[in-house]
Every structure is written in C-alpha cells, then in structure tokens.
Amino acid sequence: xxxxxxxxxxxxxxxxxxxxxxxxxxxxxxxxxxxxxxxxxxxxxxxxxxxxxxxxxxxxxxxxxxxxxxxxxxxxxxxxxxxxxxxxxxxxxxxxxxxxxxxxxxxxxxxxxxxxxxxxxxxxxxxxxxxxxxxxxxxxxxxxxxxxxxxxxxxxxxxxxxxxxxxxxxxxxxxxxxxxxxxxxxxxxxxxxxxxxxxxxxxxxxxxxxxxxxxxxxxxxxxxxxxx
Length: 228
Hints:
Layout: H1 3-19, E1 25-29, H2 35-43, E2 48-51, H3 54-63, E3 70-73, H4 82-88, E4 91-95, H5 98-107, E5 115-120, H6 137-145, E6 150-156, H7 165-182, E7 189-191, H8 198-203, E8 208-211, H9 213-216
Parallel strand pairs: 1-2, 1-8, 2-3, 3-4, 4-5, 5-6, 6-7
Helix pairs in contact: 4-5
C-alpha cells in the first residue's frame, strides 16, 4: 500500500470513529499536490478533492479528466475567476459576497446541475480571515437561495488553530447552521475541520471535513503544476 493510500485509510478510520455512525464526507485537499498524487488517492478510493488556486486546479482537472472526480473550490474568490470556477467545479465552499454568488450563477452552464454552494463564515470575526460575519449570513443565504443555477448546501469556516477556541467556534457555527434550517433553508452541509482538528469538528456536528496534510503529507512549494 502506498503512503497516500495508507494515510487515506487511516484518516477515514478516524472519521468513522469520530462520527459514531453519522455520515461525514471527506474532501481531500490537494492544493500544492501533483496530479499523480491525486491519481494515487483516487486509486485508493477517494473521489472528492478540494483546491484553493484556480490556475493550479485547472491544470490538474485537465490532466485528470479521465477520472470521475468531484471538485470543490475552497479558496478565496476573485470576481475575474468566477466564470472558470463556475464552469469547472462542482462545489464552491468559500462564497462570502452576493456579487460573487451572482457571477457564479450567471456563468454556470445550463446543461450542468446547479453549482453547490457553502457560505464561508468568519465565525471568530478575525481581521485576517476571509468570510462573512455571522450577522451577515442570513441575508446572503436568502440571496443565494434565489439564484436558479446555485444550490445552497451549507456553511464553511476555518476557525483559529487553538485547542480551546476551536471547539467554541465549531459550536457557534453549528448554532448558526441550525438557525438557518429553522428558517426553512434545508441545509445539509456543515464544512468544518481540517487535519489537526477534524475529530473535534465532527464531535461538534461537522458533516464534511477538509483534510490535506494528513493524507498527502506536507506540501512542497512549486511541486504542483500551475501553482500560483
């Protein structure tokens, strides 16, 4: 068994143990990793991958077009990149502005299913982080729900890497998620938890975790094709 395959199976086992029978999806974060590494993870059973940088991702999507993969864009969104993202990705987890949502909707090909959307929430209101403030989530959720080529699935957050604060932030995001569902949104995705904290996130209600290092190992700058 390759290192990637062994790491993937170990991560899946930890997810299953933490989930206690609940379904928790794994997004393998492949930014900075080569197409060959992604192909290796696919051979070991992983089909869902997350990318942060558009040009890097597009190069890998072309190289891996023979595989049935689900691609998630999880990085910051820029207006001039929304068309390519809408055309080539299945999910976008980092929507934080109505203008971006509208551009994704307008660029989504009609022959494809609606683009799955998560709103990124800056749950701790950190000055250095992307994402909506918690009190801005409801208006944007209402706007996204009205766009026909988008499907609002849930919320995403990247809280502080702090063993004390992270569980609090995860619980706060879960409360916000539940409040939206109480408003009739029918969300099913709470994307929170990464390599260092995904078990804590799952205990707080996560339904989707984003794991890179624990599967692929440390990123090597410039190793992946087209790295920005």
